[in-house]
Amino acid sequence: MSRKYNKKAVFTMHKEFLMGNEAIALGALAAGVNLVAGYPGTPSTEVLETIAKRNPGNVYVEWSINEKAGMEVAAGAAYTGARAMVTMKQVGLNVASDPLMSLEYIGVKGGMVVLVADDPGPISSQTEQDTRTFGMFAKVPVFDPSSVAEAYEMIQEAFDFSEKHGTPVFFRATTRIDHGYEAIDVKDPEEYFQNTPEGFIKDPSRWVIFPRLSVKNHALIEKRNAGLSDTLSSYPRNRIFPEAKDGCRKGIATHGINLMYTMDSLKGRSARVLKVATPFPFPEKLALDFLSGLDEVLCVEELDPFIERMLLQICGKYDLKTKITGKLTGHMPPSGENTLEIVDQAFTSFLGEAMEGSAEGDALPKPPSLPVRPPVLCAGCPHRASFYAVKQAMKGKKTIYCGDIGCYTLGNAAPLDMCDTCLCMGAGIGIAQGVGHIEPDTKCFAFVGDSTFFASGITGTINAFYNQADMTLVVLDNSTTAMTGHQPHPGTGRTVMGQIVEKVSIEKVLRAIGLSVVETVDPLDYELSVETVKRVADEPGVKAIIFRSPCVAIIRPSERAQVNPQTCIACGKCIRELGCPALILDAAAPDTGKKKAKIDDSLCTGCTLCEQICPVHAISGGRKPGLLPNKEGE
Predict the structure, then answer these.
(1) Distance between CA atoms of residues 161 and 113, nearest Å
(2) What is the three-class DSSP state of 562?
(3) What's 3-209's CATH class?
(4) Which residues does 460 contact at the CB level (< 8 Å), separation at least 6?
(5) pTM here?
(6) Residue 532 has what pLDDT?
(7) 180 vs 28: CA distance, rounded Å
(8) Is the dihedral of CA 307, 312, 315, 318 positive or negative?
(9) Residue partners of 289: CB distance under 8 A and separation at least 6
(10) In this model, does residue 361 exceed pLDDT 80?
(11) 239-356 matches 382-548 in fold
(12) Is the dihedral of CA 443, 449, 453, 457 positive or negative?
């Protein structure tokens, strides 16, 4: 394997003010990454986007159709000796877990980093999953940065570690690291490590997984990880902060962004601090040094009580009398994000002393609570028109509307109320089938976005057709991956590297599966949409409607609708039934005292949906439907 290392003792650097994800991306480039694949998901998305933007020209970058595909692409590159990275959020790791679990048994030749962005809160996710726990389950080493600057350095070390030990590694950043900002020193591009892959060497005894190989490699992995525990005890980013005054017998064990909360909250207080930068394999020897002479330890962590359990295990193994507290003992919240306030309150109770400068007279006044701002579909969003058309077409019939993950999950909110279930990406298609098999008198609809259709919807559709389900698939095609920042997908005709490629036609895919009823309609054509839904829903078997209209964030028309106050009868239908944020109530009319509808020009996109449902035609001025591509979506 040919390596070209920069032998300079000091690199030429420059300072940049970076988001954590940008810092991680530049760190990967500095480490000589050759290939990056991934699937967009907040809070991880900007890592791959930054690599595409700052690509020095020798890195292959792709948005894969889902995390499983991305994991396999990165693994193939790592088999050749390339340095590879795959990016995802924590729920995406579930999709990628099948190849990952086997990959750990096979191992890699080039350094391979699996970047997983965890989302404590959760702020923009279905679940709070802790990749530290997944790493222990999968036997994959985990790196856990505590700041933007450390993330930049640590990911370079993660590539070296992976390559040295022949294993993929997790790089677990959380939302506050991913989306935090810091001015840091970064290497100039000419200082980037240049990695030249050796190439794939055929060796079935290494690369083809069979039970005999798995048995052998499982034993080797367990032995390796036990040794790595000792190795990582001397890893400089795992460390003990001797902040304790003489005679102090209390300690704090923490990790990630919680180290920042801990150090801020410890001002004026005394405690020994253990920072765990590699939660798995756990640095046991360092932990023993930390525990020595301590009576009690408080574990401050997100999300699982991972460090707490490991310290309890060590105390049991070595018959230590140190009391370990944290989530399991009720001293820290069992779920959710930690904050400086939460940590400070826990320290006040644990250490029995207030933070320096926090006397009641010095305390700042409590800020007012922020207003509640529930998420809502954008003004002019074509998904609103699609949901409304289906709702009107199926009025009075027994139905179930199975939703999915994306902007269109917001169809659950009033007044649309068009999302009865939502589990995970692509699951609505399977759930609709399950309900239909048990309740054949229910009209079952499954909504899925265009990007999600390619990511995880095709499998469920094939299952429905093969098993003779009776359901209507509704593909909400807005020509982008809107929820995570408008990334391209196979149906957009372009790649993240800027290549123009042939679009994958959703209509052709559905017809190739075997569906004979596949209709495409512009959802902003209200009457045609309602008529199409009525007709298609009455067809037997699996049938599909593709509502195609571009996301308003991509094509924002200049036309605006207006309400004629003389014609408006203040019935409120447009506001009551659509829930568009551009529709508001005006001042009450002096003659009737009723508030009439008004349109906010700063929000309106002129979609014409409100024009089409107004019973007295008091709204006009929007653009007319007509942006629909031809029937095959080409």
Answers:
(1) 10
(2) strand
(3) alpha beta
(4) 426, 427, 429, 430, 433, 446
(5) 0.85
(6) 97
(7) 18
(8) negative
(9) 240
(10) no
(11) yes
(12) negative
Q: Dmax over Cα atoms in the chain, in whole Å? A: 87
* Class level of CATH domain 239-356: alpha beta
The confidence score (pLDDT) of residue 462 equals: 96
CA distance 597 to 134: 52
Residue type at 550 in one-letter notation: P
Cα–Cα distance for residue pair 88/41, rounded to 1 Å: 6
Tokens at 224, concatenated: 């390796």
Q: What is the CATH number of domain 382-548?
A: 3.40.50.970
* Neighbour-count burial for 403-431, b at 16+ CB within 10 Å, e otherwise: bbbbbbbbbbeeebebbbbbeebbbbbbb
pLDDT digits (tens, 9 = 90+) for 152-188: 999 999 999 999 999 999 999 999 999 999 999 999 9
| Contact criterion met (CB below 8 Å) for 480 and 448 | no
Distance CA 87, CA 114 (A): 6
Kindly list the distances between the CA atom of residue 189 and the CA atoms of 25, 43, 55, 159, 209, in Å, as whole numbers in the listed order: 13, 26, 10, 18, 39
- Which CATH architecture describes the domain 562-620? 2-Layer Sandwich (3.30)
- The SS3 assignment for 363 reads coil
